[in-house]
Amino acid sequence: MSQLKAVRAEPPADEPAEPSSTTAFYRPETYRAEESIGWMMRRIMTAVSQAVEVQMHQPHSPTYPQWMPLHKLSLGLGATVAELARECELDTGAMTRLLDRLEAKGLCRRVRSVADRRVVNIELTDEGRAAGQEVPRVLCQVQNDHLAGFSEDEWQQLKSYLRRILDNAQALSARREKDDSTSS
User: Fold this and answer.
1) Are 168 and 16 in contact (CB under 8 A)?
2) Residue 13 has pLDDT above 70, yes or no
């Protein structure tokens, strides 16, 4: 199978290209963490999350991690803990803890399903719906502030680069999962 990969010039259209192993952008002897794309992306995410927190400065308002499930619920995506966890790319334990906090703030409630008593649905309260509708406005403002000085073309190019990195990350993850499943 590895011989086939070496011979194939281009992947099928539905399969992301394999990352090139010929270009080594980072080398151990010159590596500086602050020049790492991972470090920079992490710093950007920290800055964005802190800016969102500042925008939502009220004492009982949701925190940055709590915004995602609120927003997903306000869009009607995910009615149970498991569905919402999948939508937010979190494990169910972390989602349960987030929902506990949102429920304590009066932004959502858990309601047992009438059709299946084993299922617990999550519903937004009126305050939760209002907070969920604020998410796009706050995130747009914060992200636009962080993109100050970028032209439309630069913004599109940046998104293209980030999508390419994400595609590479997903392809690497899929290959690792495939390798793990064939080696066990």
Assistant:
1) yes
2) no
Amino acid at 115: A
Q: Which CATH architecture has domain 60-135?
A: Orthogonal Bundle (1.10)
Instruction: Decide if 128 contacts 70 (C-beta within 8 A).
Output: yes
More confident residue, 52 or 153: 153
Q: Where are the alpha helices (DSSP H) in the chain?
A: 2-7, 37-55, 64-74, 81-88, 92-104, 126-146, 152-183
Extents of the domains making up the chain: 60-135
**Longest CA–CA separation in the chain, Å:** 62
Token duo for residue 111: 């309601």
In angstroms, rounded to a whole number, what is the distance separating the alpha carbons of residues 130 and 143? Answer: 21
User: What's the chain's average pLDDT?
Assistant: 85
Containing 110, the helix (H) or strand (E) segment is strand 108-112
